[in-house]
Sequence to fold (827 residues):
Amino acid sequence: MNKYSIAIVGAAALVAASAGVSAQRGGRGGAPAGPANPAIGNQQAIQEGEAIYNQTCTACHGKDGSAGEMAPAVAAPSRRYNRVTDAQVFDAVKNGIPQTQMPPFGGRFSDDQIWKIVAYIHGLRGTAIDAPTQGNAANGEQIFWNKGQCGTCHMINAKGSLLGPDLSNLAGMRKTQSIVNALTKEIHRIPGDGGTHDSVLMPLQTYQPVRVTLADGKVMNGVLRNEDSFSLQVFGTDNQLYLLERAKVKEVYYQPKSLMPTDYDKRLTPQEFQDLMAFLTRLYVAPLPPLPGGRGGPPPA
Amino acid sequence: MDQYRQLRSAVFVCLLFSAAAMVAAQVTDQELLNPDPNDWLLYSGTYNSQRHSLLKQITTGNVATMQAKWVFHMFGAKDLEAVPIVYKGVMYVAQYNRVHALDAATGRVIWEWQRQPANVGWQRGVGIYNNKVYAMTGDSSVIALDARTGNPIWEARPSQEGKRFQGPAPFVAKGKVIASGSGQGGGFIEAFDSETGKPVWHWNAIPGPGEPGHETWAGDSWKNGGTPIWVSGSYDPQMNAIFWGTGQPSPDFVGDNREGDNLYSDSIVALDLDTGKLKWHYQNTPHDVHDWDSMEMPVLIDTVYQGQPRKLLLQANRNGMYYVIDRTTGKLLVGTPFVSRVDWNKGLSPEGRPILTPGHEPTVTGAKTCPSTAGATNWPSPAYNPDTKLFYLIVQEGCGITFRQSANTQAGQGGSGTAYMESPVPEENWQLFVRALDATTGKKVWDYQQVSSHHYGPGVLSTAGGVIFAGEQQGEFTALDAKSGKPLWHFNTGGLITAGPSTYMVDGKQYVAIASYANVFAFALP
Fold:
């Protein structure tokens, strides 16, 4: 086992630890803590909770709590929840949510089982910021902008490039392991955004690289934002947007690989990788605190 | 070197493509001041809020052949009030907590920004400046997004505690983003630095103790609040002034508890853009008890008035009166009814103050007043065509009955008043029109009668092609001859229309766009 894989394993261990500790940063601060969840920290109990969740909850709330066809995400990168604390989630599961489709499960599961479900959801909600990895984050920032060339495609707080995903809130949206995978594995799962505005016309979230040859022979490279049988919306490697008609395009070549390099374990030394992770797992934009009286309402007529 | 590495290296090479295809996103001050007619950069089209486009590919002669080119469905949305904003072929449409950037020629999505929770509250779209799009969140923030990607850049709340934004399209001028709302202490307007989101100034519609106007609220009644401000306004760069309407005092239908004029409720205010300081005000409805807010868009025109070139402000108010104001001084020049029945005043004093007729205070059994509380017009925007010199608006003819909850007039005991109803007398019942007024006199020139729906119609759009576009709340989108009001074209959008239309041009083709229920439609000639 080389130093690099130690770093990965270490990060994974931190994820596992953080899942049980403090996944509730960000949401609706100031909510009463309520009774403690007896299943927190009990790996077997959390696994049992996951099993119940997968049998009972996924039809509406989706796998991994990332939103389904009938109900919102219970664990979403936006980290804005109506039910913040374990006690509040417990209440929703046990008693249901009035005036919604959420039924009470108190008659079906014991309190003990419900706490296990809640412990599983608690873990789902954790992201990297809950337990940033060890390392020199300041050095990691230097690596991000220089040796790592991350800013060539990515943006942080309006600095950098627009080609790839914005990373300003990376640690608030992804788990540490997911970030490690993105840096080191060609095939890695990208979690959905869990938004409750369902969308039937989502633009492509894959950042599919394309090479487009226009009718006049000019060639352009970029990532596909969207396409249909008659048009293409391409964001060029020059950070400009191109709205193209297929009728005026000679060829669209879909590049087989993402623009994202996945060999950072080889490009960087183990210490550099560790420092980069220390930086990335601290990229966080905290939501503004909740307003008194709940959500913003519509204006008066 | 494989494809992937070639592409990586391509990142560093800025290739040149056909200029026609490339879309930049850098809206400058100059473009906002003198917009390319191909773009629609502001909620009201231009800073003077004339909602008049110089595009004239679509004319009275060919509009009959206009057809739908695309529809974009905003899944889960409803009652959209956003005006489609377009810059160089990219359209931005929004509701709370969501913005969609679309290819304006195809309706295809370029990027989307959304966040939880879903919110279908009434929100009137975005502002755009430099490389940012400014949108509203459901939890009372203005959020700046990168116009090219939707990446969030900054987010700001009202700087005073207890205040909340209420859904205007953020208004951008001279590096400031302006939004408004209400809350503790009443309605407000606040300006933020467009780059950083830092607050620049905050103007309260209800003056605090010691400030001029505070004495127009008896006792502690100023603390009741009200005066919500939920629509944006207009801007005169030469005067460095913005012109906004303000909301009604609270409680809406009971005035005993708040004797006085209740400044600056139901007013048009001129504020200095840099400081937010009040330059002048004109109060349309002093001591309002009918919920006649002044959210109707102030329209700025420069024209000859009584032989003199003047800088005017026009407003058709919810209270049934059409106002022509010298916007350099705030002096009222014309105040005249624009609907057939206005019974609550018998004219204006030389200073512009309404001379009230008795019997229109809300009572427990109800008091009839014309127009009704819904207003002779309401927030949907009017338009002004400098060619015809006509002012076009949605008009509601009718009367209403206003009630209060209790006859007890002791402070705090009178209740907020219950509500109002439209008059049950058939000839006083709600009837909608698209109406053209002579801009400087307010005299009616033509009417186009709409099917009544007991809801306001959407906003109006004027074009240099001589065509007026006006939706009907029940879903028909209609083209009218600007000179005669004659209907020339219509399309059933299949949903309620509660938004104003806009127009733009891409690749030599003029489009007209409007949001209807949860969809955005774009029309053009074949």
Q: What stands out?
A: The mean pLDDT of chain B is 92. Chain B touches chain A through 67 residues (CB under 8 Å). The longest helix of chain B spans residues 3-10.
